[in-house]
Amino acid sequence: APLAELSGDHDFQLFLHKNLEFTRKIRGDVAALQRAVCDTFQLCTEEELQLVQPDPHLVQAPLDQCHKRGFQAEVCFTQIRAGLHAYHDSLGAVLRLLPNHTTLVETLQLDAANLSSNIQQQMEDLGLDTVTLPAEQRSPPPTFSGPFQQQVGGFFILANFQRFLETAYRALRHLTR
Amino acid sequence: TQQSGAELDCASVAVGAPVVPMGSAVTASCTIRRERCRGLEDGQPLISWLLDSEPMAGRQRRGVGGTEVSELRVPQLNRPQAKLWCCVEWNGTKQRVGVAEIRAGYPPGKPSNLSCLLDLGDYGLTCRWQQGADGHLPTNIMLKCATSRSPAVTGCTPQNGHSQCTVPRRLLQLYRPMELWVTATNALGTAESERLRIDPMDVAKLDPPTLQSIRSMPPQTDCVTLTWTMTPRNAHMELRCELRYRAPEDPSWGVLTGIAGHAGTVQHCKFLFGTLYHFQMRCRRDLARGYWSEWSVSRNYTTHEKAP
Q1: Which of A81, A82, A90 is nearest to A33 (CA)?
Q2: The pTM is what?
Q3: Is A15 left (phi over 0), alpha (psi -120 to 50) or beta?
């Protein structure tokens, strides 16, 4: 993939280092919200919630092209962007769940959108095909049958988003020199 | 031409331009409708002018519809603001029947020295600049910002005449260059500052680190090991820090630079034995030569006595 030749490129490396830091920031903010869900609803570990885990497709964010085996940087970038777009929307459910943390959740949504557009611009700078994810075409956040299901849903949205970010972080770091 | 006063009034004053460059000419006309002026008997009203309190003579002529019109030309308006009064002689007195505000000034001066700083609390970007020369006219100042890809221009407006304002987080694009500039606009023109092209994160002001512990390590040597931490909101950043130390009698600080990475420990040697030292640390982001944090709170440590 063209990225392999460019990974020595200074601007590309600067992009990677900056957005690795950005991803760390986002992961820190997601962790803060996970702590808030734990403190507020006593929902702290996945192990205790296996039987009530919501539909696994709560958020569509595959990152199969970002794993070491078959790493396809261009496709991986596109998957990261699509995932950020999806989590941006699903965070709306967390917004309802944690009204006292509205500023943090909204900052998280802003950061997710910013990271996605940073990746898009970098792909365009590299001459790669990019999919424009229409900002206005947002899907509504998931809804749940009751308060407890909403809390569990919020818990798993954040847990899955943290996992998603971890994979995305490793993919970006894989490209650094 | 701008009309002042409705057409049904006793008089209406129109000026060529309400705002003119300083020292330029101003033209105006005053139209008298005698039938609308209470108590003004028949006969030709004598129209005169006052520039603030300075009498001025116009050229009077008959207008359409039985009106009387006086046209005035002020060759040079040399004051930023003036009132142009239209008057009519009546019973031996000069009656003020209409007025127009006129202004003179300059196009706005170019704003300069634009600099910005990102607050890691609310991620607002506060920018400061130096105002350009005063144009003596009502001036609209705005800080404008745009990301390199999007045509949308947003920004903020300084309040109460300050030369600063804060762009809220939602208008910023983090970790990517943005363009910022100041515009000053008055009736005579617009001036723009130089454009600042920065990634807001590169002008983040970090919180000072905290020196946690200081020990002689390894023991019985002239080496000291310090542990330090950063605030949680800076924890995700790759940092470049420097440590300064000084014994009370030292004329200046010793400085250890290039301390890299996240929070952690740092070791330095060649300290005098049995001596009290003051230690401070500061940091900035490794990715950008942005702003240094303030120095940490000072911590004192006395090195141990030399072994006999």
Answers
A1: A90
A2: 0.84
A3: alpha
| Residue to test with chain A: of B148, B175, B202, most A Cβ within 10 A | B175
The rounded distance, in Å, linking the Cα atoms of B164 and B191 is 17
The reply to whether B238 touches chain A by the CB within 8 Å rule is: yes
Q: Is B87:B49 a contact under the CB 8 Å cutoff?
A: yes
| Chain A residues closer than 8 Å to B148 by CB | 121
What token pair was written down for B161? 């005449």
Range picked from B70-74, B203-207, B263-267 for highest mean pLDDT: B70-74
B203 in contact with chain A, both atoms CB, cutoff 8 A: no
User: Can you state the percent helix, strand and coil of chain A, rounding each to 5?
Assistant: 75, 0, 25
B118 contacts: CB under 8 Å, gap ≥ 6: B124, B125, B126, B200, B201, B203, B204, B205
Are B89 and B46 in contact by the 8 Å Cβ rule? The answer is yes
The single-letter code of the amino acid at A133 is L
A28 in B contact zone (CB under 8 Å): yes
- Partnered with residue B259 across adjacent β-strands are B241
Which residues are bridge partners to B225 per DSSP?
A: B215, B267
Summarize pLDDT for B94-117 with one digit per residue, the tens. Answer: 889 999 999 999 999 999 999 999
